């Protein structure tokens, strides 16, 4: 779980995270994830999802825009090899942004993290 507002200022505005992983056999994998505030999620250069999850109201937990692992999921059939997952996150509220993601499958291993890139607001 990445609580971005704890380590990066909201003034950064936008952030792109990438992570490579390897599948050792052809299989269906599952991505379970949640985010705040705006997300574009890609796998191997193909957009899987774009969306917004911002605070709407404080009347109920679901309307607060919190990051929740059970919010979204996708099942994808992948061939063996190295794949890249990329998440572009944008902050639209000044009080928090983040991402949580679980990658599930047999004989799937994460490769070393490569870094973070972003652009400061003008």
How many β-strands, per DSSP?
10
CATH superfamily: Galactose-binding domain-like
Q: From the alpha carbons, calculate the radius of gyration and give it in angstroms.
A: 15 Å
| CATH topology category name | Jelly Rolls
Which residues sit in consecutive blocks of at least 5 with pLDDT less than 50?
none
Helix count equals 0
What is the CA–CA distance across the termini? 28 Å
CATH hierarchy class name? Mainly Beta
Strand content: over 45%
Please summarize what this structure is:
The protein has strands at 2-3, 14-23, 27-36, 38-43, 46-52, 72-78, 81-90, 98-104, 108-110, 116-119.
Features:
single chain; 122 residues; mainly beta; Jelly Rolls; 6-stranded antiparallel beta sheet; 4-stranded antiparallel beta sheet; 10 strands; globular
What does this structure look like?
The protein is mainly β and 122 residues long. It has one domain (2-111): Galactose-binding domain-like (Jelly Rolls). It is built from no helices and ten strands. The strands form two sheets. Strands 2, 4, 5, 7, 9 and 10 form a six-stranded antiparallel β-sheet that branches. Strand 4 and strand 5 form a beta hairpin. It is globular and about 45 Å long. It starts with a strand and ends with a strand. The mean pLDDT is 82.
